[in-house]
Every structure is written in structure tokens, then in C-alpha cells.
Amino acid sequence: ACYNIGFDEDRSSYGGANGTLFNWSKDGAPFWGPSGITFPRGGFSAFLSPNQNFSVPIIDSLEATEWLDSQTNLVTISFTVWNVNLNTMAVCDLGVEFTASGTQRKIAQITLQKGLRYLQAYDKFLAAVEVILVIYFLIEFVWTEFWEIKSEGKAYFTSFWNYYEILIILVFSAIVVLQIAANVIYVSSDFNLPTTEYGDYILLNLLQNTVQELLAFFILIASLRAIKFFKILPYTGNITSSILNTLSDRAFVVFVVFFLYVLITFSMAYHLAFGFTVTRLGSFGNSVLTSLRMITGEGTFEEITASNRVFGPLFFILFISFQSIVLMNMFIGHQTFCKILEEQTKSRKIHHMGKGCGLCSRKKNQADRI
After folding, report:
1. Lesser CB count within 10 Å: N end or C end of the chain?
2. 43: which DSSP letter?
3. How many Cβ atoms from other residues are within 10 Å of residue 263's Cβ?
């Protein structure tokens, strides 16, 4: 991938006496660089073979004709390895990003997927189970939620758990659609290509990897859905009710908003102050993740201190003070105040009811005397 000044991708041909030796092609897949930049698909590619006698002259030719120049921003090597004994396919992407400051950042993206599918009887059994689960999900969840929306109308959207059910349906639907697309690509793919041809299995691997990640997320949220049923049990009912009431309280929402505001503010400060010298703060997204890791005790105190002996410790102390001390104590204090206020309100009601009962008893005694 080649970029001009201003970080606009340059797809014009270059190299050779006429400047047309290397031409842009759409081979490859989008690549996420180490600095957080997502490079689009395509570039100036060359095919290499596992045969050393075939590949070494090509590499020497690329070096002699200056395939890499000052506009090169990213170099990747993409290849697929298939282990027949394990029936496992590994799609490997090795990349080196050349930053604007002249440094090189390396990254390796390796994902494993199953090779040939639905060959044995056990695989066919799993395929039948998948179809049964899809049919069950359509009947049990989609059809039930459809009738609830139709019967309740706008009142259906006033409950938090109904939105949760919709989220589960959307995630499962995405899994089904992506798995069908992956199966279509799998059927149309040729896995018997010779080593002299490039097998593009990147899209298939991307879909399968996305399905696995969404499936893990679906199992997580579907399991958390069962929390509301713990309210029925005598020992876990009070704890579950307390947790659910806290999550649905407006004070908790305000706390989360303020927490995210402080987190994003300090992440921006970290990125602007130390982004050029500390790798884990090189992008805003990495800076946010690093700030979250600081809260759990795994931080970059030594790195930012080595970068700046004054502002490094200062930012670290201020961030930990805000997040761990001020915000947490503010949330705990607010919850304690709400509980005390609720108890005082109940005691006042009982006190007023006692006065009313005493007044009624005195009036009754007076009536008995008369």
C-alpha cells in the first residue's frame, strides 16, 4: 500500500523506465495496522511460491527495481497453511507498517479454522443439530416476541428485558446469516490448488471467525438472561433484586456517564502527551484500553514516566485519583445516602401512623366515657 502526502492512497503505477512496472490490484483483504489504521483491500502485489528457486529471484527483482520506496506505508505477506492430519487451516497475515516518523511496527494476525467440513458422520450430525436449533429459535424466540409486540403494542418497549430479548434475536440472526454465507463460499471454494496459484480464503476465514466471536457473545448474553430467574430462589432473590435495581437506577446511569467522561478525557490527554513515544498510547483506541488497564492495576507508569518525568506521574496520579477514589466513593456514598433516606422515609411514615392510631384510641376512650 502506497500513500502520498496527506495520507491519500496512491493507486497509480510506478517503477521501471516507463513507470508502469508495478500496477495496483485488488488482491488481499483489509488489514488493521499496528498503529490502529485500517488499510483497505488492494495494493501492489507479487506472487511467491513455497519453492525457494521460484521465489528468491522474484524478491531480488523487487529489491532491484525499488518495489519499496518512500511512499510505501504497509507491506504484508499473506499465506494459508493447511494441516491435513489435524484438518486445520491457518490464514496468516504478517505485516510491517512504516510510520510517518520513519519507524517500523510489526504485526502478525494468525487465525485457525477447520478445513474440510461435513465429511464424517459426526460432522453431519452437528449440521443437523444446527438446523434444529435454528428452527427451535425461530419458534421459541422470534415467534413469541412477535406476538408479544403485537399484543402489547407500545407498552412492550417500556421493559428493559424486552430490549434484551430483541438484542438476543438480532445477534442470533446475524450468526445464521453469516454462517449461511460462509457455507456458500466454502462450497464454491477450491481447496486443491497447486502451489503455483494463490488461494484466496481470506473472506471465508473472516466470516468463520466472525461467526465464532458472535456465537461466544450470544452464549454470554443468553446465559446472563437467566439472572432474572434467580429472583425466585429464596437465598439469591434479594441479591439479584438489589443488583437489578442498581443497574436500572438513574443514579447508576449518571455515574456511568461521568465515569466514561473522565476516562475519555484522560485517554485523550495520554494520547496527545505520550502517543509518539509510548506504543500502547499510539492511537486513541489503544489509549482508552490502556486507561482501563490502569484501573485494574496493569498500567504503563514506567513507560510514561520515562517519556516525561513531570507530566507522566502527574497524569497517572490524577487519573487513578479520579477513577479509583472520587468516582467509586461518590457512587458508594450516593447509594448509602439513598438507603438512609429510604429508611428515614419509612420510619416517618410509621411514626405518623402511630400518632394517628393514638388519636383514634383517645377519641374512642372519650366516646366510651360519654
Report:
1. C
2. B
3. 19
